[in-house]
Amino acid sequence: MKLNVLENATQAPWYADGLKFTCSQCGNCCTGAPGYVWISEEEIRRLAEHLKLTPGTIVERYCRRIAGRFSLQERRSPEGLYDCVFLKETRIGKGRKAQVKRVCTIYDVRPLQCRTWPFWSGNLGDKDAWEAAGKRCHGINAGSRTFTREQIEALRDAEDWPENPPTSSST
Question: What is the mean pLDDT of the chain?
Fold first, then answer.
């Protein structure tokens, strides 16, 4: 009996030589089309401790239940985008030179999904998918931080917070 084996099964992935990514903390990954930011019960507990609330209050105020799982809520922005409930705009400066910066108000305890951006399976499927994600994310293919294949795959497959996530400022 002959088994059909995929020709590419032993071929290295397209990102085998590594990928550049340095988070610019622009908030673009926290807004856009409707979607889901999955959050585990452990992360809800971490968030509750951070905000000095109960896990039940976190779920009630900031989460929605979808098919037995929790996702952070979204709010519709004036531009019609769907912003994470924890994305806030702050004004820097005054007058005409004032700039608006979008920041995550729970950055230190953000969920795993946020911590592992942009090394998600969908973005890593092929170079075109990576480049498409880069059109919204200024940090893709930019900056000084290069991730090895092993780091990329560890982030893609992470089940809990990585020690040195791609969206951290440490290298």
Answer: 91
